[in-house]
Amino acid sequence: MASLRAFLRATRAERNTPPSPRLAAAGLPPDDEVLLDAPDARLGPALVAAGRGEYGAAAELLAGTRATGEWEHRDRYVVRLAAFAHSRAEWLTSWRAAAPDDPDALLVAAELAVANAWESPARAELLLQTGPLVEAAEAGDPRDPVPWRIALDRARGSDADHGEFERLWGEAVRRSPHHYGCHVAALQYLSTGPFRSPGGNGSYRECFDFAERAAQDALPGSLVQALPLHAAFICLTRGDGRTVVDRYRLDAAADTAAALSATYPAAAPWPAELRNLLTYVLIALDRWEDALLQVRLTGPYTTSFPWDRFSDDPLGGFLEAREEIHRNVPAARCASRAAEPGSEHDGRAHSGDH
Fold first, then answer.
1. CB-CB contact of 51 with 88 (8 Å)
2. Buried b (16+ CB within 10 A) or exposed e, 103-138
3. What is each CA distance from 285 to 76, 233, 308, 309, in whole angstroms?
4. What is the DSSP letter of 224?
5. At what angle do helices 90-98 and 103-118 cross, to 10 degrees?
6. Which of 14, 175, 214, 253 is 20 to 30 A from 31, comparing alpha carbons?
């Protein structure tokens, strides 16, 4: 599937084929203009410099997020930088050698170590070995919640008991009560492992209870408002989850996330993961027209999550999802919705306070 899609995109580019009228009528970019995991304007230069083996731009970027307390952006940038270091680590090695106590370098190194351990069949054992590095990151800046998100991810993979989870969660929320990454990590922990109720099914309702409480308490514009969407995704992608959660809760989670999506800029890289996850959930709920709106809002941007949970070709998965939406929304309605006043296609983009 991946090689076939690559071939089709290359062939279309070589022939200078115009965009599909069907895609254009629906207000969507053609397949060959869709970008996977595109960095934003701040992260892009840091990745380019890292590709040259230079760490200065990454160090400046993360130091800036720490100085201004931009914890959500910091978390996203750390994840992307660590993913880049997975295949190109020279810049991170040089950074750590030059500044072994730099809290930003320690944070990227901890994220990389935990992410690598998660990919191994010996996950639990390797995650336990990451303890000193994660603890060093935790000590880097006492205000920073991101090391505690990494610690929560580590706890989930190493089957830490509930007491340890409560300790880590307490440290995280003490630093940032509404940090999105920590809330997602906590939700994932609650849905798996030692916290699961003996019968298994109860934890899905518990996940929704946790997610809905957090969303209600979230600040305006905060991504934490989308936490029930993650709970819905967990339920919809596990065989027993759908049967024990009311359809009302699934729809309400999607509605809340859609309202949040509408406040964010259209066709921007950083809200793309929310919109891709929301698109998946809406498709699973057979809400095709709502899904069409989200793929319009995401524009040319797609993200590996959630499509990489089902395919080695996440870009292909997203493009297939767009095709499925087209098949289920009448073409005439696609065209009329794309031209509606007030949509992102009239030149106005929604603004948010994130």
1. yes
2. bbbbbbbbbbbbbbbeeeeebeebbeebeebbebbb
3. 28, 11, 20, 18
4. G
5. 140
6. 253
Placement of tokens 């891709």 in the chain: 276
Residue type for position 134: V
- CA dist 331 and 317 (Å) reads 21
What percentage of the chain has pLDDT greater than the value 90?
Answer: 74
State pLDDT tens for residues 322-331: 999 988 997 5
**pLDDT digits 0-9 by tens, 23-54:** 666 789 999 999 999 999 999 999 999 999 99
Cα(259)–Cα(255) distance, rounded to whole angstroms?
Answer: 6
More confident residue, 192 or 69: 69
* Total residue count of the chain as it appears in this document: 354
Which ranges of the chain would DSSP assign to H, the alpha helix?
Answer: 2-14, 21-25, 43-51, 56-68, 71-87, 90-98, 103-118, 123-129, 131-138, 146-157, 162-175, 180-190, 202-217, 227-236, 247-263, 272-284, 288-298, 304-307, 314-328, 331-338
Token reading at 174: 């003490």
- Tally the C-alpha atoms within 13 A of residue 177's C-alpha that lie toward its C-beta: 7
Map residue 42 onto helix, strand or coil.
coil
Sign of torsion over alpha carbons 19, 20, 24, 30: negative
Query: What's the pLDDT band for 186 if we cut at 50, 70, 90?
Result: very high
Per-residue pLDDT, 178: 95
pTM: 0.85
